[in-house]
Amino acid sequence: MLTRNCLLLFLWILVDEGSVSSLRPPSPPLGRSRTGREHAKSLVGPMRNGAAGFQRVKRGWVWNQFFVLEEYMGSDPQYVGKLHTDLDSGDSGVKYTLSGDGAGSIFTIDQTTGDIHALRSLDREEKPYYTLRAQAVDIDTNRPLEPESEFVIKVQDINDNEPKFLEGPYRASVPEMSPVGTYVTQVTATDADDPTYGNSARVVYSILHGQPYFSVDPKTGVIKTALPNMDREVKEQYQVLIQAKDMGGQLGGLAGTTTINITLSDVNDNPPRFSKSFFHLRVPESSAVGSAVGRIKAHDLDIGKNAEVEYTIVPGDGGAMFDITTNEHNQEGIIILKRPLDYESKKAYTFKVDASNAHLDPRFQSFGAFKDTATVKINVLDVDEPPVFNKPSYLMDVYEDTPAGTIIGAVTAQDLDASSSPVRYSIDWKSDLDSYFDIDPVEGTISTNELLDRESIAQHNISIVATKLNSPVLNSRVAVTVHVLDINEFPPELASPYETFVCENSKAGQVIQTFSAKDQDLPAAGQQFSFKSSKEDQKNKNFTIRDFGNNTAGIVTKRGGFRRRLQEIYLLPVVIDDNGYPPKSSTGTLTIRVCGCESDGSLLTCSAEAIFLPVGLSTGALIAILLCIIILLVIVVLYVGLRRQKKKETLMSSKEDIRDNVIHYDDEGGGEEDTHAFDMGTLRNPKVVKENLFRRDVKPEMKRGPRVPVSQDSADIRDFISQRLKEHDVDNSAPPYDSLATYAYEGDGSVAESLSSIESLAIDPEEDYDYLNDWGPRFKTLAGIFGEQSETQSDSTTTDNTH
């Protein structure tokens, strides 16, 4: 590059033979480079003096884009280039100055010649170019001869950086048994050199270690498998060394390496295998149901879920007695007992167990069945066991007051071992503290030890112990429940006092009443009753008893044509039996009344009493009859009250209230005989005098005390009048001052007429209710009631009149 710059300078000197007018070319933009050859071409142009058709282009500056080698190791400063202006005539009258990036510290310029040198070694990776400004000034006046111009010094790259893997070392995985060319991972190396200049940054990848298992693409760095069917169970980890070399891999290029650790991931390519084909186990016959009796294991070379094993028992000889599950932690098969073992019944069981993978890979099913089979034999060991009862529990019944020593039941236990030892029975004393029961130690029969009372204890719970004679420590227990049954103490009886009627128009064979029975004995739920006619009444030609078999019976007519005028009531005895122990029997009597009925069988009338019975009348009919009676009674009472009210008159001769009288204070009274101002009847009848009458012209000053009622029949009327006079003298609520109050009393023979209700009732004639008899048989009872009432009123009236 230095040679080329010198050549350009030499060409410029050849062309510039004469004085050239100043011409400054436009400065190139920053970062844009121009080669020396292009600059030389710009200096050569058509000659203005006609020399062969060319002329010289005048320029003010002769300059270029300069280059400097990086990492220069020479002892002298590195020559960069030369600046020159056409105003410089070589008489040292022009001074060159330099400013910008590194001016003075990195780059220096000869002020006289314009030569530029680099003072130290430069690194392109640190700074790829420098922008500087140059100017030519007069050496004497220091006046700029040309405007300041800008140029660039680029650091020319050399291959001084090797490729580097920034993310190493790498880790990757690939499934085992993968085909050739399966992608594993990709690595990338970076080179700090200039990728636009030469091959310094052109990187090529190669594999140094890891062949023949893997390969790498030289341009992209993609790593792939190079061998088929690599088995994880054979080798799981691989270490691959990758090299990245610049200069396109040529000799002299720089290189960098990285390590890649590749792991083969597991796939389910191996079935489980039993370590042996036959397993021999032993289990005591006393083992509990649900307990583990043995373990077997099938090994799988895979890992994780690919090594999960499922065990199944092949249906066969012992498959129903045992079950097998998988231990999730170690993949063992645990054999579990499903049913109780009995050495005396069967001493050994043999069955097969299959072991298979839970998660199959369809790619490897062509390798064969992914399962293994083993045979398991289990020998049952004999254990000395306690006696066994033939029932898990016993239930016995005994009647109360049963004599002591009565056998109520028995228990049975036996030794199932080969020795078949005799068994002895006993009652656990803790369950029978009062010793109500006893047991035969050899036979096992249970009997009462004393009288039992159901009202005290209705149920006894005792525990029977069976012990082997040759091994007393081995025993078993069973629960025995003894129910004390109630003795049939009460005979059955009719459930209720039935009121039965038979219609006069009934026919033979008709059920006229259904009845049932009850019993005070317990329990009521299990009682059964039977009904029949008594022996004395079996020849009854009127009625019979029919037992329905469900604790109810019916009364059935044996004939028709019943008449009330011939016989109104029939008595039918019925014999009731129960099923208690001992059985009880009683005889009840059913009363049957002959009644008149409608054609449809509804009750019409039986008698004055039977009409109100709900047996013969419906609820609606009863309500209608009662409403009619109530309405009639209300009408009668209102009528009688109105009749009495008409005859009742007050003792007052004047119907005007004394408060309605207008008193003229300017009039003079007429004396004691003046009876027109006030109603004298009021004085004669104290009951009509109204209390709390206050004067309006005088403000009350004291509260009026309570008045003592004076009887109309008082003997000393004068004392009453005197007391009233004193009250009027001190009472502010009395009549006005000029009013005269006259008091008089009329005894027997008063102008007031008699107030006797008898006299009032006797004025009008009584109403005749005989017309109710004409309304039919349904109103005969009502006519009788009002007829008796009329007669009673008449008698009472007669008696009052006589008095």
Short description:
Helices cover 12% and strands 32% of the residues. With 803 residues, it is mainly β. The model is unreliable at 1-60, 608-615, 650-660, 688-692, 756-765 and 798-803 (pLDDT under 50).
What do you see in this structure?
This protein is mainly beta. The chain is built from seven helices and 46 strands. The radius of gyration is 71 Å and the shape is elongated. The termini are far apart. Residues 1-22 form the signal peptide.
Specify the biggest β-sheet. 5 strands, mixed
Approximately how much beta-strand content do the residues carry?
25-35%
Helix/strand/pairing class, anyone? mainly beta
Q: DSSP helix count?
A: 7
Q: Strand tally, please?
A: 46
Keywords:
803 residues; mainly beta; 12% helix; 4-stranded mixed beta sheet; Cadherin_CS; 5-stranded mixed beta sheet; signal; disordered C terminus; 7 helices
Question: What's the helix and strand layout?
Answer:
Blueprint: H1 2-15, H2 36-43, E1 47-51, E2 54-55, E3 61-62, E4 66-69, E5 78-82, E6 84-85, E7 94-100, E8 107-109, E9 115-118, E10 129-138, E11 149-156, E12 164-165, E13 170-175, E14 183-186, E15 189-190, E16 204-209, E17 214-216, E18 222-225, E19 237-245, E20 255-265, E21 273-274, E22 278-284, E23 292-299, E24 309-314, E25 322-326, E26 332-337, E27 348-357, E28 371-381, E29 388-389, E30 393-399, E31 407-410, E32 413-414, E33 423-427, E34 437-439, E35 445-448, E36 459-468, E37 475-485, E38 493-494, E39 499-503, E40 511-518, E41 529-533, E42 543-547, E43 552-557, E44 569-578, E45 585-597, E46 603-605, H3 619-647, H4 680-684, H5 717-730, H6 757-761, H7 780-802
Parallel strand pairs: 4-11, 13-20, 22-28, 30-37, 39-45
Antiparallel strand pairs: 1-2, 3-6, 5-9, 7-10, 8-9, 10-11, 12-15, 14-18, 16-19, 17-18, 19-20, 21-23, 23-26, 24-27, 25-26, 27-28, 29-32, 31-35, 33-36, 34-35, 36-37, 38-40, 40-43, 41-44, 42-43, 44-45, 45-46
Helix pairs in contact: 1-2
